[in-house]
Amino acid sequence: MSITQILGKKGREKIVAITAYDALFASLFDEFVDIILVGDSLNMSFNAQKDTLNLGINEAIYHTKAVRNGVKKALLMADMPFGSYQSEKQALKNATKFIKQSGADCVKLEGEDRAISIIKKLTGEGIAVCGHIGLMPQNVRFEGGYKIKGRGYDEAKRLTEAALNLEAAGAFAIVLEGVISDTAKQITDALKIPTIGIGSGVDTDGQVLVFSDMLGLYQGFKPKFVKEYLDGKTLIKNAVKTYANEVKSQKFPTDEFSYKA
């Protein structure tokens, strides 16, 4: 999947995105989705951290490189971790490192006004960038929690202007996270580039979910916007329990699973 193909879906076909952190899961998802995001959410669902903030860029590159090995069709997008794009110079250095070392097709970064010059710099050097506004997880400690955005006329206007500025800076798409659905629709209608929603209603150009949330694997908290398509936690725990019981009772391995002379 190319950037041009993603852009071509605007207003025509919903974009399907999902996270992945390794080649195995990426290969299972690749057939069905348009975008696979190596999100900094891996710091919570994979590393059991309380937020995304202490994820390092080398760790993010490691996981993106692993996912690359499982992706044949989808566009591979990588999150720029917190602290890796605080200036244009730093952002270009780290984004270039991402593209070269991991094989990502594009990067994603959070921010409104502060992201404009960074996106201009990266796209000017040939690096495709997806923006991210609304609820920005990398601001969680600064804001004192995860706050829904886009309530009221002034907030809706501000977010719409921010999205338009990121589009003008060169972003090929924008993630809208935790945005009131009416505001998300307003932003989507105002842009020529696609919006990808997470917790922002049905009127965005696409949707993204963290795979461990939608498969019912993550045992932390469950946001309102997450629909569990599988009770993965129960299924896996039951399977491992059965395996353990069979080993202890010597029901496994039987002759069927043993080599004989």
Number of helices: 11
Largest sheet: 8 strands, parallel, barrel
Query: Which value, in Å, is the CA radius of gyration?
Result: 20 Å
| CATH topology description of the largest domain | TIM Barrel
The count of strands amounts to 8
Residue runs with pLDDT of under 50 for 5 or more positions? none
Can you tell me the CATH superfamily of the largest domain? Phosphoenolpyruvate-binding domains
Q: What is the top-level CATH class of the largest domain?
A: Alpha Beta
Q: Kindly state the mean pLDDT as a whole number?
A: 95
Strand content: 5-15%
Keywords: Cytoplasm, Magnesium, Metal-binding, Pantothenate biosynthesis, Transferase
Protein name: 3-methyl-2-oxobutanoate hydroxymethyltransferase
Function: Catalyzes the reversible reaction in which hydroxymethyl group from 5,10-methylenetetrahydrofolate is transferred onto alpha-ketoisovalerate to form ketopantoate.
EC number: 2.1.2.11
In summary, what is this structure?
This is 3-methyl-2-oxobutanoate hydroxymethyltransferase. The protein has 261 residues and is of the alpha/beta class.
Summarize the topology.
Blueprint: H1 3-8, E1 15-19, H2 23-29, E2 35-38, H3 42-45, H4 57-68, E3 75-79, H5 88-102, E4 106-108, H6 113-124, E5 129-134, H7 140-143, H8 152-169, E6 173-177, H9 181-190, E7 195-198, E8 206-209, H10 211-214, H11 232-248
Parallel strand pairs: 1-2, 1-8, 2-3, 3-4, 4-5, 5-6, 6-7, 7-8
